[in-house]
Specification:
This protein has 132 residues and is α/β, with parallel strands linked by helices. Helices cover 54% and strands 17% of the residues.
């Protein structure tokens, strides 16, 4: 089964109806139908929460998190293996530390990373990116 990793950029685009939202929505529907697997690192989920909380409020961010937990998205904890791989991406520079967790999860799972964040251009040779 095809696997995709969501960067925080993708979920924020979906919730805020930004460019690429329809692509993320289609992926979410496919995941609900068990046609693909979707995952997000808990670190990137934290990015989603604080981005929403900063724009609105912590309670609204909590509501969004409840919605996400009801979706067909696996939330992956950051164990040492994932953290070390993320840190190796950070060592190369050019990507935020949180972004490194999305890249690491995608590489670890041999999955496409779903994002619109141009900072990931620097790792396109190491992981496959599905641009939104």
């Amino acid at each position: 089964m095809q696997s995709r990793v969501l960067d925080s950029y993708a979920l924020i685009a979906f919730f805020e109806d930004e460019p690429g939202a329809e692509i993320v929505e289609a992926l979410l529907l496919k995941a609900e139908e068990n046609a693909i697997e979707l995952a997000i690192s808990v670190v990137n989920l934290g990015e989603v929460w604080y981005s929403i909380a900063r724009k609105t409020s912590p309670s609204i961010a909590d509501d969004y998190l409840r919605d996400i937990h009801g979706m067909a998205i696996e939330v992956v904890e950051a164990d040492w293996e994932l953290t070390k791989l993320a840190s190796s991406f950070k060592l190369k520079g050019k990507i935020s530390y949180a972004g490194c967790f999305a890249a690491a999860l995608a590489k670890n799972r041999k999955a496409d990373l779903v994002t619109g964040d141009k900072e990931f251009k620097s790792v396109e040779g190491e992981i496959k990116i599905s641009w939104i």
